[in-house]
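Quick one, probably user error.
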């Protein structure tokens, strides 16, 4: 059996941990079954943002007529878009080659799986099995994959695509003439925004009664109105019944769950964006004592510890949200707690050990890059009202519209018009604390950051979840009230604040990683 100091499974946010372990002089094994760089780089947030930015400019070109600028109809160069998308995805090759050159690192290209607690093998992509490997610390960052609809009659035979296929061998040679999108969450709405802006006839099929159902209802209803304005055909409360081929197109029969009425829709392609499932099944965790929840996500406590000492889980696979910046946040916590020597300059006072960090999943910002953009942090109004009695909150809700500001008017937003953006803030008037902030409108990804930073500054309460999971140190810490104070005037308040990825706020929030500090 080969022994390492650290094994990292997954090369998305897991690379942050790998780099820190290497910087600490440790012997590391890195396991990856797919492209290096993780979901975000190879089939997720980065290539999609390259595409939706094109769509944003198309929509802006339509908008500027309202402020006195006459423009011609935009023409799209699909080859340029394709080249820019794949230039980012192909960075995975450079990442792989860089890691192969690291002296203290062994790269395993294949699927890692557990033989028993803290003992793994790798099923190589090119065939064969590795020797058994183990380590004192194992970090699972193996991610998730798109939920499929093979259980729907005809779907497997006719075929459909997911984001993995789209950013793979089925990337289209030109924009689709028509497209059915199944799923109205972040991925589905971003693809709908992109293709509808190019002139594709888009039909979006959603099982719920609104788009982006995890967002505040007022925001999701506004987005639905905007999508309808742009010609996206929205099918809410829909159940999938059958897929077939008809007239050289793919046909989908859906049933309205409220009325019971069935409807047939056709398109050139069907894109399934109906959520994700964890890759935990690939790890063969039945051979271990690593606990899963009922949906297959790895259970972790607030220190990202699993039910096996020395094994941690970060990113999509722990079920606390599928966001790259959330995964980065967790990786930073792992680095802080396990590899403090690798922390950036200025983050730890000289001669002192860093405070042990813990995760808070209720203050993570999220952005959906539709048009208009949607951004949020904290609780929705519905969530806050459900907790009000238990928390002794007196909840008040405030709105402010783009059109009510001078800059908003300058940008062409007018009161009572369908595209007038707004911010909605939920507060507890007893404590004067912000419980949540929700924005729909231009540059919402930028406007949300002050709220995200405020919520992660000051006294940060230690919230315990999965109380039966933890090391001896964790259990000792839980016997007393443990919290951390982040001084908003110190660099740590920026270092530990989460910024949505990928957003221009990263230019501000990541400065401390790149400016030499002496």
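Nope, works fine. Designed sequence:
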């Amino acid at each position: 059996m080969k022994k390492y100091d650290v094994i990292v499974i997954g090369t998305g946010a897991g690379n942050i941990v790998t780099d820190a372990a290497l910087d600490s002089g440790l012997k590391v094994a890195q396991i990856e079954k797919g492209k290096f760089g993780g979901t975000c780089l190879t089939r997720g947030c980065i290539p999609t943002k390259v595409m939706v930015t094109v769509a944003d400019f198309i929509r802006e070109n339509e908008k500027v007529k309202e402020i006195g600028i006459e423009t011609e109809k935009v023409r799209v160069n699909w080859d340029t878009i394709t080249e820019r998308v794949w230039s980012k995805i192909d960075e995975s090759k450079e990442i792989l080659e860089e890691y192969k050159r690291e002296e203290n690192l062994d790269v395993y290209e294949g699927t890692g799986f557990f033989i028993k607690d803290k003992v793994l093998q790798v099923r190589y992509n090119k065939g064969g099995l590795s020797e058994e490997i183990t380590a004192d610390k194992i970090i699972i960052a193996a991610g998730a994959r798109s939920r499929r609809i093979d259980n729907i009659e005809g779907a497997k035979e006719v075929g459909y695509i997911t984001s993995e296929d789209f950013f793979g061998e089925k990337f289209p040679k030109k924009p689709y003439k028509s497209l059915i999108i199944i799923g109205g969450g972040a991925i589905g709405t971003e693809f709908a925004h992109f293709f509808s802006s190019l002139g594709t006839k888009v039909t979006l099929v959603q099982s719920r009664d609104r788009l982006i159902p995890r967002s505040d209802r007022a925001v999701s209803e506004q987005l639905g109105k905007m999508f309808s304005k742009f010609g996206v055909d929205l099918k809410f409360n829909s159940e999938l019944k059958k897929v077939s081929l008809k007239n050289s197109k793919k046909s989908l029969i859906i049933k309205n769950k409220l009325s019971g009425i069935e409807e047939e829709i056709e398109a050139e392609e069907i894109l399934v964006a109906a959520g994700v499932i964890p890759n935990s099944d690939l790890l063969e965790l039945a051979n271990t004592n690593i606990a899963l929840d009922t949906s297959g996500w790895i259970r972790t406590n607030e220190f990202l510890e699993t039910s096996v000492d020395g094994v941690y889980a970060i990113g999509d696979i722990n079920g606390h949200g599928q966001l790259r910046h959330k995964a980065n946040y967790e990786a930073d916590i792992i680095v802080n707690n396990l590899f403090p020597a690798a922390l950036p300059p200025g983050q730890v006072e000289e001669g002192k050990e860093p405070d042990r960090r813990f995760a808070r999943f209720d203050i993570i910002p999220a952005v959906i890059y539709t048009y208009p953009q949607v951004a949020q942090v904290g609780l929705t109004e519905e969530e806050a009202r459900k907790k009000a009695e238990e928390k002794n909150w007196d909840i008040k809700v405030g709105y402010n519209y783009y059109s009510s500001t001078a800059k908003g008017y300058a940008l062409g937003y007018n009161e009572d018009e369908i595209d007038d953006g707004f911010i909605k803030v939920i507060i507890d008037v007893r404590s004067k604390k912000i419980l949540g902030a929700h924005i729909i409108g231009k540059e919402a990804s930028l406007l949300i950051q002050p709220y995200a930073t405020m919520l992660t500054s000051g006294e940060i309460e230690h919230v315990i979840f999965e109380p039966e999971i933890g090391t001896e140190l964790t259990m000792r810490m839980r016997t007393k009230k443990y919290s951390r104070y982040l001084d908003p005037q110190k660099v740590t308040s920026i270092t530990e604040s989460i910024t949505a990825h990928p957003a221009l706020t990263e230019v501000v929030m990541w400065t401390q990683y790149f400016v030499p500090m002496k």
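The longest helix spans residues 45-63.
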